Amino acid sequence: MAHFRSFEELEVYKEATLFCDAIWDMISNTSLQKDYKLKEQINRSSGSIMDNIAEGFGRGGNKEFIMFLGFARGSCSESKSQLLRAYNRQHISEETYLELNKKAQNLIDQLSKFIDYLKNLERRGSKFD
């Protein structure tokens, strides 16, 4: 793995940011903005994906990073569940639901592959260099 100096350089972080922005755009342009609890939940869970990637990276060790990437993956799954609730409550169209659900699943897949990659590295992380 290339040595990254910041979490912002990670492709999975960039994708998480795009997903979070897409969720905010959805909230801002639909009736979901009036469903306060669901709006806050999906806003928090989508932001938690990128936040956990950043926090895990900042810990400097692969073992902790893997743990936080798992949290990020969980937050992404939570966002998927909340998207379904938004669709079932007719806040979003089927097209929007399917598009964002696909983005979330792609992000889950990327996080899973990154976790598997880190598990197989001999290098234990920057704090051990």
Question: What would you say about this model in short?
Answer:
The protein has 4 helices and no strands.
Characterize the structure shown:
With 129 residues, this protein is an all-alpha fold. It has a domain at 67-120. It has helices spanning 11-28, 36-59, 62-88, 94-119. α1 (11-28) runs antiparallel to α2. The radius of gyration is 16 Å and the shape is elongated.
Assign an overall shape: elongated
Content-based structural category:
mainly alpha
Number of strands: 0
Helix percent reads: over 70%
Q: What are the low-pLDDT stretches, counting only 5+ consecutive residues below 50?
A: none
Largest sheet: none
Give the amount of beta strand, in percent.
under 5%
Figure out the total of helices. Answer: 4
Secondary structure layout plus pairing:
Layout: H1 11-28, H2 36-59, H3 62-88, H4 94-119
What keyword list fits this structure?
129 residues; mainly alpha; elongated; 4 helices
